[in-house]
Amino acid sequence: MTKTLSQLAKLKLEVINYHNHDISNPDAKTGGTAVNDKFLVGLSRDACYTSHNSLNFKRKQIADALADYDTAVEAKNISDIERSQRWIDRLCPELDELQTRHDADLEVYKHITCGETWLPNSRPTAAPKARNFNDLRKRVA
Fold it and tell me: 35 near 56, Cβ under 8 Å?
């Protein structure tokens, strides 16, 4: 890949590559057998999954805080407005840091997989089938 990695992505890649050691390498402090590439991809995938979930959790916290703020504004409750503002002001930098972390994890995953883009697993789209309880209703009526 021609794109250079960000500093944070380089550091995260170093952590993953720490696990890429073999017994013939004198610099490998841990020794042992060499791990396969699939293992390293898995480490990167896990990092993407974790940072994605952290990002979603923080977004939900902010959405809840905004709803609390709107309720406080509607009720004209000054103390709740100020409390919500302080909480939102505290959460926004955390959201920025989590986004930076997730972007770095995505960079590392793309680098390790030679260009593959990580995507979160999609939830099943099929709705649960409604059961027909008519016969049971007749039996218990």
Answer: no
CATH number of 7-119: 1.20.58
Tokens of 39: 């293992």
Distance CA 62, CA 109 (A): 27
- pLDDT tens for the chain, 141 residues long, are 446 789 999 999 888 888 776 555 555 555 556 678 888 899 999 999 999 999 999 999 999 999 999 999 999 999 999 999 999 999 999 999 999 999 999 999 999 999 999 999 877 777 777 788 888 888 887
What letter represents residue 91's amino acid?
A: L
Rg (CA), the chain: 24
CB 61 within 8 A of CB 91: yes
Instruction: Enter the DSSP assignment of 30.
Output: S
